[in-house]
Design brief:
Elements: E1 11-16, H1 21-32, E2 36-43, E3 56-60, E4 80-83, H2 89-92, H3 98-119, E5 123-127, H4 139-153, E6 158-162, E7 167-168, H5 176-181, E8 189-190, H6 191-204, E9 209-212, H7 214-234
Parallel strand pairs: 1-2, 1-4, 2-3, 4-5, 5-6, 6-9, 7-8
Amino acid sequence: MKSAFNSEKTIHALVIGHTGATGQALLDTLIASPQCESIIAIGRRESARHKGSPKLKQYILPNMLEIGSFNLELLKGTNTAFCTIGTTFNDVFKKSKAKEYQSVDFGIATSFAKLAKAAGSEFFGIITGDKSDSKSKHRMTRVKGETEDFVIAQGFERVAILRPGLLNRGKGRRGWLEQIFTVNGLFGIKVADLSKGMYGIALTQTESVKRYETVDIKRAIEDYKTNEISNQKIK
C-alpha cells in the first residue's frame, strides 16, 4: 500500500550537508517542490549551484563543530530538518580518518539535532547507514548507531532514519573504492533518488520513529515519483 502524501503540509526546511552530493540533490528537490516554501542551509561554504534561489538562505559556518551555538533567531519558522552530512565512502574505512569520522558523523550530526529541536523542528530526517547499531564492535556501524540513539532521545515528533546500503554519487564524485563497489556507477541508490525518498518521507511519515532500510527507501522513492507524475497529470 502506498503512503498518502500530505498535500496540506507546508515545509520550512533546515538543512546541513547541502554541499555534498546528497545535500545538493536534496536542495534540488526542495527548491522544485511547491510545498516547500523556504530553506535554510548551514555549511562551511555556499552551494554555488543554488545561489540566487529565492527560497534558499545559506549561512556560512567555517567550523561546523560550532553549529550547536548557532543563532536560533535566524532559524525561526523552520519545521523540518534534514541531516545529510557524513564522511565519504572512501574515507570512512581509513584509520587515519577515525577522529574526523567521529567528529562529523556523530559530533556535528548530534549538535545539529539539538539545534533543530531548539529551533522548533517537528520532523528530523537523517541518513546513517546499513546495520547501524550503537552496540556494534565495528567503528563505522557503532558511531552511526550512537548517532541514531542520540537523535531519537531529543524527542522530535517524528524521526526518520534512512539506512541506505551503497550510494551512487554520480560521475565525477566517486572515489576509487566507490567506483569499484558501484561497478563504475551501475549499482547503488542514486543520491538524486535518495533525496526524493527522504523528502517524500517527511511528507508522509506518521510514526514517531521509523528506520528505513534499503528496501523501504526504494519504496519511498517510487511513491514520491508516482506522486510527482500524478501531480503533473492533474495540472
